[in-house]
Amino acid sequence: MANITIAGNSYVIASDISMADLETVKKYRPSALALTDEETKETLFKVGIGSSSVSDYGISFGGISNDEDKAATATLSKTELLKQIKLISSEMRRIPCTSKTDKVIKYIRYADDFIIGIKGIKLNVNKLNNGFRNLLALP
């Protein structure tokens, strides 16, 4: 988690983790600082150390708080953040709003009857079918 403080025309983002702990994780287990999609191996979010910045993939902490926690901080200007938000928003508008998989589940209900239509790999369909059977078999 992080705390965000507005100070004039700047935003100060302070992590709950100290800069020393972030540096230790970066040294011994750098993969723990990134969230990746398991299927595509694409980086979804990343925490970095260096100059304070926000990018498409995450945040980089470049300062240390003055309290005893010595938390990792990033100080960013309002104009820099607004520019980044505008850039990300325009990128999001270009990406079509579609599923990354060809799996589809449809549910149709009429009175006390229902139909569940599933389009996908037969193995996954059989797992779902068995799950539904077990659920409906409960007393």
**Extended strand count:** 10
Helical stretch tally: 3
Radius of gyration: 23 Å
Question: Percent helix among the residues?
Answer: 25-40%
Helix-strand pattern: EEHEEEEEEHEEH
What's the shape? elongated
Strand percentage, roughly? 35-45%
Structural class, judged by helices and strands? alpha+beta
- What can be said about the biggest beta sheet? 4 strands, antiparallel
Distance between the termini: 43 Å
Q: Give the domain tally.
A: 2
Low-confidence stretches: none
Provide structural commentary.
- The chain has three helices and ten strands; from the N terminus they run E-E-H-E-E-E-E-E-E-H-E-E-H.
- It is α+β, with helices and mostly antiparallel strands and 139 residues long.
- It folds into two domains: 2-94, no CATH class; 104-137, no CATH class.
- Strand 1 (2-7) and strand 2 form a beta hairpin.
- The mean pLDDT is 79.
Relevant terms:
40% strand, alpha+beta, 139 residues, four-stranded mixed sheet, 2 domains, four-stranded antiparallel sheet, 31% helix
Write the layout of secondary structure elements.
Layout: E1 2-7, E2 10-18, H1 19-28, E3 34-36, E4 43-49, E5 53-55, E6 58-61, E7 63-64, E8 71-77, H2 78-94, E9 104-110, E10 113-119, H3 122-137
Characterize this entry briefly.
It is built from 3 helices and 10 strands.
